[in-house]
Amino acid sequence: MSFENLNTExxxxxxxxxxxxxxxxxxxTEPDREARxxxxxxxxxxxxxxxxxxxxxxxxxCDALAVNEEGSEPWEGYPPSERPETDxxxxxxxxDHGENPVYIAGVKCWRRYRFGGWITRRDxxxxxxxxxxxxxxxxxxHPIHAFNVAQPGGVELTRESCGSLQDxxxxxxxxxxxxxxxxxxxxSESAVMDLWDQLERLDSSITADLLDPDQFTPREVxxxxxxxxxxxxxxxxxxxxxxxxxxxxKLCNRYFAE
Length: 258
Fold this sequence. Notes:
The protein is α+β, with helices and mostly antiparallel strands. It has two domains: about 5-145, no CATH class; about 160-255, no CATH class. The protein is built from seven helices and six strands. Strands 1-6-5 form a three-stranded antiparallel beta sheet. It has a three-stranded antiparallel beta sheet with strand order 2-3-4. Helix 3 packs antiparallel against helix 6 (about 220-235). The chain is globular.
């Protein structure tokens, strides 16, 4: 494989230097050049669902932040205006089709929809179509990776913008740990409601989704809080309306990981 055929004129400014572009069909066979997510920079060994056989692969955790040009969740299967009416008694398989391009933390990506799902890849050439993406992101038949560094450039993240998100995330973890500890004992109502109030001040959308605490014992409320926060803190591969900022805070944690 030769870099002579690599189109360097159209590479966007945020890519690595041309000499550092990885050209490989299977990064897992090259441990010295382990593939990284093209958004957060997480290495293959730590990333969740990183499609390393594809150009500029995006991990599933970053993919959960994808939006369309209007900032809404990208559609899949049928465009909203073309979704057919179906009988509930009939199993209807949606086509392997979906919205493109999508944007994650301000960078353009393209999805390949197949087998009821998709893989997401970052654009290194500011392509205007999926066909153009496929043409420009292969060299001698092999996919390229032009963002294979710990902190890929061009991502709309700064330590300053992430600071408050990461602080909120730490507070959420603390409330979760306290709720676990309280649930393992015989908590007082005041202790449990103090945790509830802390969570409501941090993000009222989370407590709004929970059942009325007045209907339960203090211990049951503590268990409910711990279970809900555990669900929010664990790895999420889909967007969530409740505590939506948490997914972005996790991106900050991955991107600025020491």
